[in-house]
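Sample 3 of the quickstart, ligand zinc ion:
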Amino acid sequence: MAVLAGLAGLCLAGALAWTSLRPDTGRDAGRAAGTSAGPEAGASPARSGDGRGEGRDRPGKRAPLHGAVVVLDPGHNPTNREHPRAIARQVDAGTHRKACDTTGTATNSGYPEAEFTLDVARRARALLEDRGATVVFTQDGDRPHGPCVDERARIGNAAKADAVVSVHADGAGEGQRGFHVILPAEVHAGTADTRAVTAPSRRLGEHLADRFAAATGTRPAAYLGPDTADTGLTVRDDLGGLNLTTVPKVFLECGNMRDARDAARFTDPAWRQRAALGVADGVTAFLTTPG
Ligand code: ZN
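Result:
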């Protein structure tokens, strides 16, 4: 979440790793912002699915998430740093105005949060689509900057998403480790009214924290107080992306990019796959467990 300026020229290892993992990325190029076809759209040649690649089997109506719409919001944008004026523009955050977006943070060795969030979200999309969900991205590395936080919220709302997960990694101090899930506070002021979504968002967050811990083997962050250390959950009323949501939504901070041990995880593609599994399992549990 933290702002870090001057990231130009940093390592793009995440993008390269992703390209080699999923060579068909281009087929999804027009899918941000609700243009996705349904999971059963079109015929596909039979192939035992490995979760990615052209021609994989389309999950049918018996898939566990058939009919569900999941919006994944990869935090920041890898090229925000090239558009400082655009992302500094003030936009509505529900109860106040704030910057459109930020560059995001990075590991000390220069792996940007925005590359990490895109990679984890893309991996989670593959898993969720295999389970039958329709997955919409707020951005897929396919626009020069943003979207702004208010547009990120609107994309989830317009998709009538059953669940939205905004994927991030924190920029706290060295030695501060672990993940946390941010829930929307109950806010009814300005253009914000989260009263209808605080309860389902909490259920989504609880499932996500539980499954993310299980999938990654990591612990909740201890640097946000004892409650978060116990539950992996925290509540905020200052995030436009949460204040403006009308559908169940949480933010996931996968860990702290500024901690060397967490950073070592983030730069490992195998760990990012486990993180994505945690996201997919958390969303799946939320959508398939009676409230
Ligand atoms: Zn962030």
